[in-house]
Specification:
This protein is mostly helical. It has 7 helices and no strands.
């Protein structure tokens, strides 16, 4: 029997990906740090129950997906704290590049927001994060065939939304 994974090693190995995935799964920028912390609190709390039926990576991603869903659901009830101080930062991108990138991100987020949670999770994990479908299914605790079915439906919905966006853009 192998030793249980150590929380510090899990954090070092999966921290950056968890942070990125929380944002990709629709957690508001103001809530990403809290969701990140909650994800690793859950990992720490449940680490003793990890049975290695799936990869550690899939197990952590599954926790991350569930935390992201909770944060998305409660986002409408949360309030942001406004401050008068704006931090100064240096950015190498031009304003036009920022605008194009922000618009593309907003369009993608709007398209992803149209998907239900199950389809969104499969689409983000498989298409954007590049996980193998077996790991996606393990993370979401569903059969592989169901994950493929959700991916197909998500792709169709995303393609239709992109087509609608192009028509609106070209019509202007």
């Amino acid at each position: 029997m192998s030793a249980a994974p150590e929380i510090g090693a899990i954090f070092r190995e999966y921290g950056q990906f968890v942070y990125t995935m929380l944002r990709s799964l629709g957690v508001r920028p103001a809530d990403v740090d809290d969701a990140f912390q909650e994800t690793f609190v859950v990992v720490h709390r449940k680490l003793a129950t990890y049975e290695a039926r799936s990869t550690l990576r899939s197990w952590v991603y599954g926790i991350c997906v569930r935390v992201a869903f909770r944060f998305r659901r409660r986002a409408s009830a949360t309030r942001e704290i406004v401050t008068d101080e704006v931090p100064e930062r240096v950015d190498p991108m031009t304003p036009a590049e920022h605008l194009r990138e922000r618009e593309a991100r907003e369009i993608l987020c709007a398209i992803l927001d149209e998907l239900d949670d199950d389809k969104r999770a499969v689409f983000v994990l498989f298409e954007l994060e590049g996980l193998p479908m077996q790991e996606v299914a393990e993370s979401l605790q569903c059969p592989v065939q169901t994950a493929y079915s959700r991916l197909r439906a998500a792709r169709e919905a995303v393609d239709a939304a992109v087509d609608r966006h192009r028509v609106r853009r070209d019509f202007k």
